[in-house]
Specification:
This protein has 286 residues and is an alpha/beta fold. The protein has five helices and five strands. The protein has a five-stranded mixed beta sheet with strand order 3-2-1-4-5, with helices on both faces.
């Protein structure tokens, strides 16, 4: 049987670990709330840009623009956003498995990877895929300026024909209990589902100097918005997953402490019984 001192030592270790998991749970909750506020503040602006692009596409069905649908796809670039750290449950594993499943559909020689997180960069460094871009800074410090800088590099690659299709793989924050991996194609733009002229808004808007010129100007902002939104949602998902993982770890620690309390009481009772037996035996011997 395990001794009383050993059980006390084990309880102390678990109690210290539980303090850490509770602290990490609170930190994750705080960061989660902050990231959700960032999404709500920036979403309306970029939603309006998206609607403007959609309107331009619907108003001029014969619009010939480099950002619009292209049927010849030789190379694809995937922007992949995972997490910065571990201890987030299955978060990193889920998004990287989703990315792998998507990449296996094509020849790896025709794929470029743009990694926007430490975990995804560490993962793809060990593979044969070409890293077109990597950002290893913390997603917590990600901002609009950095999103614009990265989106500019991605757009330059598209315009220079280094790749003909751009997609992003990230985790959408549904709730603290649910995070959903998403694969979203960004370029070329395809609004074939919104070709009904009767359903679009602002039909009488005149785009100066031309719809194509306006499209060229706002597409970088559109890509920036998608990238920034995906990073913030992924960060929120990571914090939500980490919060649930730490909450589960704290709960398990409490269960272990209960079991150890039972073991401690049994061991102490056994020790007392043994001492009484030894005293009784000594008294009889005298």
């Amino acid at each position: 049987m395990v001794g009383v001192k050993d059980i006390k030592r084990r309880k102390k270790t678990i109690e210290n670990t539980m303090k850490i998991t509770k602290a990490m749970e609170l930190v994750a909750f705080s960061k989660l709330r902050k990231s959700k506020e960032q999404v709500s503040k920036t979403a309306p602006f970029f939603d309006e840009i998206y609607n403007t692009i959609k309107n331009i596409s619907c108003l001029d069905k014969n619009l010939n623009n480099i950002f619009l649908k292209n049927n010849i796809i030789k190379k694809r670039c995937y922007v992949i956003i995972a997490g910065d750290k571990g201890l987030a449950g299955s978060y990193n594993g889920n998004i990287l498995r989703t990315a792998q499943s998507e990449l296996l559909k094509y020849n790896k020689n025709n794929i470029l990877i743009a990694s926007i997180s430490k975990k995804s960069t560490d993962f793809f460094k060990k593979t044969d895929y070409d890293l077109y871009y990597k950002h290893e800074g913390l997603l917590e410090n990600f901002n609009i300026d950095l999103a614009f800088e990265i989106s500019k590099k991605l757009i330059d690659g598209f315009l220079n024909n280094q790749f003909q299709e751009l997609s992003i793989i990230f985790t959408d924050f549904v709730s603290v209990l649910a995070q959903k991996p998403v694969i979203k194609k960004i370029l070329p733009l395809d609004f074939s589902d919104f070709s009904d002229f009767n359903n679009i808004k602002n039909k009488n808007v005149i785009y100066d100097p031309s719809p194509g010129a306006v499209l060229d100007m706002i597409v970088p902002q559109y890509i920036t918005g998608i990238l920034y939104g995906a990073v913030v949602k992924s960060f929120a998902s990571e914090q939500g997953s980490r919060r649930m993982a730490m909450e589960s770890a704290s709960k398990n620690a409490k269960e272990m402490l209960k079991d150890l309390d039972v073991m401690f009481n049994k061991a102490r009772q056994s020790s007392i019984t043994q001492e009484i037996t030894e005293i009784s035996a000594g008294a009889r011997a005298i």
